[in-house]
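Amino Acid Chain and Its Fold in Token Form
===========================================
Purpose: to set a sequence beside its fold so the mapping can be learned.
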Amino acid sequence: MLADLAGGFLKLFEFWTFLHLVGGFLLGLVFGAIPGLTATLAIALLLPFTFGMELSNALVMVMGIYMAGIYAGSVTGITVNIPGAPSGVITSIEGHPLMKKGHGAKALGLDAFASSAGGMIGALVLMFVAFPMSELALLFKTPDKFSLVLLAVVTVTIVSNGSLWKSIISMTIGLMLATVGIDRMIPVGRFHFDSPHLVEGVGLLPAVIGLFAVCELLSQAAKSTTIKAAVHKAVQPVFKRRDFIPTFKEIRDIGLVTYVKSSVIGTVIGMLPGGGAAMASFIAYAEAKRVSKRPEEYGKGSHEGLAAAESSNNAMCGGALIPLLTLGIPGDAVTAIIFGVLLIQGLAPGPDLLSGSFAALSPMFAALFIASTFVFISILIFGPYYVKITRLNRGMLYSFIAMIAMVGTYASAFSFFQMWVALGIGAVGFFLRAMGYPVIPILMGVILGPYLEEYLRRSMIISEANPMIFLTSPISLSLLALTCVFVYFLRVRRPRV
């Protein structure tokens, strides 16, 4: 195994293989940073071209896109408060306040360092713990998955700043939107009001674009551009590349435990179907806030919160590949497309894949690790240009973002109706945010709602409608107990600030 891994790293030093990795990474940066153009879309567009690629080149390029796409979703989130992907939502909460205070280079540097560290830890877990971790994932039965998703739903609700009741209402709206369309267990439409378009349901991308791109654009349009320009000019110094390198003191204050624990959380969440980077970042962020000595800083530019979110969502990449390669079960939307890449190359994901084709897949493992190091290198190269995004003409910048967001929404389903859905959700989100309702729980309700419903209904079918099934499973019981712990420490006993 170690010899095969060494061979995979050596393969990356071949010119064309390395060029595919760099090209994929740069493509992932572009698609991940621009709202509406996700890593999923980038790999989907690459899929037809993998027919003519050598196996190692195709897998290496996909890994570059994957790692860069997850990271880059935080770049526009930090700079203009419009995350390029759901994985960048939490990072925006902590990174954009730092940007407004004139600490944009520090925010982007800490973001890249945490992403790089998390990505490397996730890749190492993938390399050396794939088989044991896949056995752990097999232990999660349907009731356990429900309790995990419930933990995520409750966590997202209680970590939102402001009124708990408003957070609950926002989450409820998101869960309601998730029920529109085809039933996940019975192929019939529901809550579509006889509209053939609503049978499609509310897509994830329109929800993301609506709640963050459209909502943010409307919020910026409602503000005084003169005042905003004056403030913006006052707080944005000229940054040099060394300003993007975190100091040892900043990293020490965040703590090695935060990086490692958040990365482990991200890896484990990534292993579970439907987990994804968004859920990983929310749970890791909540855990970091629970044990933090400075919880009052969260939501105002916490270095610790930013590092926890970014470490976990990039570590998720390695975790999500484990069930794909060992069980043939994709962990998220991106790995579902990677599944197609493997099939095109004549490899069938499943229990026999690693034992029979580990040498062929080793460049893929090595590429994920090397791409993680590229993340931090990229901030030293492109960091000053990221900051300059905020110095662009606001009218031109927001017009460009609006155009790309709408095109991305249409391209996701080739549906004009989904563009109207994004605009409608954005308008509703704008009014809700103006009244103090958080919009993040709405998005997480849309993401997690289908899984929460499916696992609940399947559990009820298995137990013949006996809810005790959630208490008789040790894993489910532990997750429910952890949910209660989170509620107690984050809401009942939270510090008064």
In short: Residues 353-388 form the longest helix (36 residues). The radius of gyration is 22 Å. The chain has one domain: 2-492.
